[in-house]
Amino acid sequence: MNPPTTATPRAPINVTCPSCGERTVFGPTNPYRPFCSARCQGHDFGAWASENYRVAANGGAEPSEETPE
Ligand SMILES: [Zn+2]
Fold it and tell me: Which residues form a coiled coil (predicted)?
């Protein structure tokens, strides 16, 4: 008699924030997805902007030679 409950149209998708590792909701209710907050989103973007990831992806060299001042 009861309809099958296999399909849940409004099931929230939980993901791990790539910045702080906290569990957060990946959906329309979270404008900062896949991050948990604007702070985490900005933090990760800052790392990209400072080319930390770029250097790491280049072979793991230490960013000690290129210090723009
Ligand atoms: Zn976070």
Answer: none
Per-residue pLDDT of the chain (69 residues; tens, 9 = 90+): 666 666 656 778 999 999 899 999 999 999 999 999 988 888 655 555 565 556 555 665 566 766 667
| Separation of CA 4 and ligand 1 centre (Å) | 35
Q: Does 44 count as an annotated binding residue?
A: no
Q: Quick one: fold of 14-57?
A: Erythroid Transcription Factor GATA-1; Chain A (3.30.50)
State the DSSP string of 16-66: E-TTT--EEE-STT-TTTTSSSHHHHHHHHHHHHTTHHHHHHTTS--TTS-
Q: Is position 40 annotated in a ligand binding site? A: yes
